[in-house]
Amino acid sequence: MAQGRFAGQERFTGVGLGLRRPHLEAVAARADHGVPFWETCPENVIGDGGRPHRDACAILDRDPVLTHGLAISLGGFDPWDEDYLGDLGRFLVRTGTPWHSEHLCFTAVDGSWLHELLPMPFTREAARHAAARARDLQARLPVPLLLENITYYAELGAAEMDEADFIAEVLEGADVGWLLDVNNVYVNALNFGFDPKAWLSRMPLDRVAQLHIAGHKRFGTLTVDTHGADVIDPVIELMQWTLARLGRPVPVLLERDNHIPDLEDLLAERSRLQAAYDEVLAVPVGGGRG
Amino acid sequence: MAETLALQRALAALVLDPEGAAFEEDPVGFARGQGLPEAHAEAFGRFPGGLAAYRELARLSLVDPIETMFPVTKALLEREGAWEGCIDAFLQTRCVGSRHYRDIAPAFLGWLAETEWGMATWPFLLELAHAELLEVLVARFPDGILPEGLQETPHPGDRLVLDPATQVVAYRHAVHRTSETDPVPEARPTHLLAYRDAEGRAQLMDLTPAAAALLVEAQGRSIREAAQALGLADLPLPLLEELRIRGAIAGFMPA
Ligand SMILES: [Fe+2]
């Protein structure tokens, strides 16, 4: 179902980078960065102003861009902010993104934003609720919606199913695409002691339209999805395994949100991942994608 | 719906409320205290470490922009052993009501203004925090649409139009002269002009009381009338032109 669902998706392949504030000026000044696409967070651009904002807009108007929301609180209960959804819709159209992703989680409760990706209960009621919210959001967006699997550090309440079944039930119930974060699968596998490949094998991979990859860090007994370190080899290997399994050149996005290195170092890290990507799915330039 | 929402409220309470600090001592008791059904409450006892991590992670997310934006306020209150109490009180009131991460620091300032937290002890606290955030707000103020017909050179009959990002502020303390090592400001009336320069960087400028008053007054009436009303002997046209060149004034509107 992922094939043909997303108009304009053929422009997106290879390994892209998250567009981050410290790099805006440098990226705006050079079009030869070699990054096939950027991912940007609408919440950080909409309503902002000043010099970095102008740089961000110049890049978004020049380069291919995917959009990735941080705080819609998809699984929450607060009503949508209609004004914001209007702004978001216009922003998505302006960027030309083929889809928009949000996290399968909640980030706000009773009008209070926690600015953290908080886990949904793995219950039938929560799955129905999240699927209904996703369908409702999808109906208000001008592009297809993807949901992303998050890391979680605890089950919230008494689970009626496991994480894999919960995600699959929401994706199927909402009939939306999947932004598959392989680092999140890896981190959850470490924290909860399961095999990430067996986990992925159970999932509706036909819904995957994009991958995320990132670094993580161990704190005591808990591994946390910090986005603050280089990607480790087992996660790269899991990305390659997933790509091979998908058999399609879905775009991969390298997330880096903390300890953000110089642009040159980040570009080098991207090239390392691009090489790993090409090893599995070399896409001939200007052809082979039909 | 009811149970999912109740679980979300319980996690929010664990993150933000004072009771959350004692969560690990009795996770199930905490969950029962949140009114959760027994099966869900018991589940809180199976993942105490992971749930406690959410308290730490989410509080870090909320506190990080505050510590970054208010280093002098933080230095002052840390010195007085009051920073953690201040943050706890702020988080507990749940007044981060925006999806935008950049709005967390302004929410903290708004909370200080509304509650006057700490003002009995540190009467300059709100001004200090305001001055710390001022340059950030000016630097990222959304670009506005300017009226048409603005002139570059001021004449006595013109009104002045500030750049939309520009702010004229008055403090009762010299809060802009503080630092992390010297966070207590001198009590002295202070007038500041905060504006965005051509590179988009925020700049601060000390103003005389008369200049500050003129910048405010001459937006609603002509420069000549404003100066007369303020009892100014001379029209500071060169200053106004200089401020236009620096970017603080957008231009001058002929009558
Ligand atoms: Fe991700």
User: What is the string of SSEs of chain A from the N terminus onward?
Assistant: EHEHHEHEEEHEHEHHEEEHEH
Count of helix runs of chain A: 10
| Average of per-residue pLDDT values of chain A | 92
User: What radius of gyration of chain A results from the CA coordinates?
Assistant: 18 Å
Strand content of chain B: 5-15%
Helix content of chain A: 25-40%
Low-pLDDT runs of 5+ residues of chain B are none
Would you tell me the structural class of the helices and strands of chain A?
alpha/beta
Radius of gyration of chain B: 24 Å
What percentage of amino acids of chain A are in beta strands?
A: 15-25%
General form of chain A: globular
Structural class of chain B: alpha+beta
Q: Mind describing the biggest β-sheet of chain A? A: 8 strands, parallel, barrel
Q: Can you offer a commentary on this structure?
A:
The complex is a heterodimer of chains A (290) and B (255). With 290 residues, chain A is of the alpha/beta class. Chain A has 10 helices and 12 strands. In chain A, the strands form 3 sheets. Chain A has an 8-stranded parallel barrel with strand order 1-2-3-4-7-8-9-12, surrounded by 4 helices. The radius of gyration of chain A is 18 Å and the shape is globular. Chain B is α+β, with helices and mostly antiparallel strands and 255 residues long. Chain B has helices spanning 2-16, 27-33, 38-44, 48-69, 71-79, 83-92, 104-115, 125-139, 209-217, 223-229, 237-246, and strands at residues 159-162, 167-173, 187-196, 202-207, 249-253. Chain B has a 3-stranded antiparallel β-sheet with strand order 2-3-4, with helices on both faces. A two-stranded antiparallel ribbon of chain B has the order 1-5. In chain B, helix 1 (2-16) crosses helix 4 (48-69), helix 2 (27-33) packs antiparallel against helix 3 and helix 7 (104-115) runs antiparallel to helix 8 (125-139). The N and C termini of chain B lie far apart (61 Å). The model of chain B has no long low-confidence stretch (mean pLDDT 95). At the A-B interface, helix 3, strand 5, strand 6 and helix 5 of A face helix 1, helix 3 and helix 4 of B. The structure holds fe (ii) ion. Fe (ii) ion is lined by residues 148, 181, 212, 255 of chain A. Fe (ii) ion binds at residues 148, 181, 212, 255 of chain A.
